[in-house]
Every structure is written in structure tokens, then in C-alpha cells.
Amino acid sequence: MDKIRIGVVGTGHLGSYHIQKYLKIPGCVLVGVADLVEENARKAAAGCHCEVLTDCRALLGKVDAVSIAVPTGAHHEVAAIFLGAGIDVLLEKPIATTLAEANELIALAEAKSLVFQIGFVERFNPAVTALRSVMGRPLFIESHRLHPFFERGTDVDVILDLMVHDLDIILHFVKSPVETVDAVGVSVLSDKVDIANARLTFTGGCVANITASRVTGKIMQKIRFFGVDGYHAVDFNKRKLVSLNRRNGAGGQIEIAENPVEVKAVDPLEEEIRSFVRAVADRTPPPVPGRDGRDALELALRINEAIVRNRERAPFLTTTSLHGTTGKARSQP
Question: Phi then psi for 326, rounded to 5 degrees?
């Protein structure tokens, strides 16, 4: 096909990065950017020589594909506009806020044979790419995704904001149904859960312990896989992988040695967007399809349900709720 006409909807923190990456990819032309706040759109599009819009519908008929980086609550509405119009979509995570919304988007894409990719950028982290070459069958997984507090992202809880990245990675590598979910979570600075821990057991025997926080002083983004074959640790932030394996040493003795795995120096977001562009150009399935986004959302919602169940057993947490207050006084209507 000729050059792919691209639009970007949502020009906040992440949408601005999408714009920058598209400008670096041959075969793309950025046609326009849209944001409800015109000043944000103009700032993000400065020097791009593209249209600046406040209504994303104005992109219809002008683009072949779009990146959507609007707040989570608007994912379904905006993505449905473009999928319904036959336009390929790269939708930032999470896919939606409910399974019904996710199912509708997937059905729209499948009915029109569209490329529908979910923006799980950690799939393209070079440490994760390298991990695929050495990963065996994990038996225990431990992950921590800890961030300082930022206002952006607080339209959803920390499970959908941060933990969902690790849920997607774990589902990608375990490839086994989740049998049980136990979790606890509390609100600290927002009116939704800001710190959460979940323990998952899979039918294949694997157990995962997952912690996410958006009220931590320093950033920590790590996941560790333990198995019969060895130990693998990914530092998402530093894009590093430590991989240790059991092998026969001198005299036939068992020893632990580091696997010589190459971790390439690549930009995960750029790799993600390049993969989307390739799928659009070649009409091939995207590496992170809508159904993967649905699976991660379903697990995130199960974790939220487990948090609610545990609150019933913890009276000191009853002043907080998934959609309630943080214990501050609220005026009555």
C-alpha cells in the first residue's frame, strides 16, 4: 500500500510520545492529531505539519490507522468510532473498563478484518524479548511495579493503571488458566485503590505474587521467574535481564551459570508502534491482539473482586472502597 495515513487521538503524556515515534517510521505520514483540549493538541503537534483537531471524528475518511491514548474511561467510545469506520487501531492499555466493552471492540475488529492492537509496551521491552529465548516453565513468579504518585492515570485504580502490565506479561509466559485469585488493596491518595497485592495460582501449578503501588518514593519495575530450568529476572526500567540456568559442570557436578543472552538496545514504544505499522501494511495479526487485552482485563477485574471480598474480612478498611472515599469527610447531598 502507499504511505499509511496516521492519526493520534489523545495528546497527553503518552500520546505525545506516539506522535514522536510515528515521525521516525518510514512509510507513515501523520495526518492529524486530536484532543479535547486544543492547546494540548497544538503543543504536541508543533512542527509536525499536520491537522490539529478537537473532535476525533474529523479524522474519519482521512486516516488508515490511529493510535488512541485517551483516558481509560473513553477507550471504548473512541475505539468504537474508528473500528466501526473500518480504521485500524492501536489502543493504549487497558483495552476498556468492562468485559462487555472489550468484547464489543474485538467483535468490531474481527467483523471488518481490522488490525486491533493493545498497547502493552512491556511486551516490546528488549529484556522481555531476550527472555523468550531462555524461558522454560515457570513455577513461581514475583513482580513489583512501584511508582511515585502522579495525577495522570488516577481515573482508574492501580490494577488497571500499573499492575495490568505485569498481568499481561505473566499470562504471556505462563499460558495456563488462572485457578484462584486472592488480593488486598487500599486507597491512599486517590479515591481508588493505590496499592495492591495479588496472589494467583494457575491450573498448571504456577504461583504468582504481584505487587503494584503508585504512592512509592522510587520507581521499581521488576519481575522474577523461578523454575526447574533456572531463574530469570527482568528489570523493565533498566531494560536488563539476569538469566541463570542449571547445568553440568566439571566432574559432572550440577552448577548454576549465567546464560549468555543478548539484550538489544531498542526503544520499547518505538518497537511497539513499528509492529503496529507492519501489521497494518502487511495485513497480518498484531503481536498483542485485542483478545490478549481482554484476558488481562478479565484478570484485573478478578483481582478487584478479590479485594472487595477481603475488605469484608478487614473492618479497618471499610472506610475505603474501589470507587469510594479515602476516609475524608464527604458532604451529604
Answer: -100, 25
Q: Which residues contact 72 (CB under 8 A, 6 or more apart)?
A: 94, 96, 97, 155, 156, 160
Angstrom CA distances, 45 to 26, 39, 161, 237, stand at 18, 10, 26, 27
pLDDT in tens, 79-129: 999 999 999 999 999 999 999 999 999 999 999 999 999 999 999 999 999
**CATH architecture, domain 4-120+269-288:** 3-Layer(aba) Sandwich (3.40)
Q: Which tens digits make up the pLDDT trace of 15-59?
A: 999 999 999 999 999 999 999 999 999 999 898 889 999 999 999
Helix/strand/coil for 263: coil
**Closest to 9 (Cα-Cα) out of 89, 86, 107:** 89
CATH class of the domain at 123-265+298-317: alpha beta
Cell for 132? Answer: 523468550
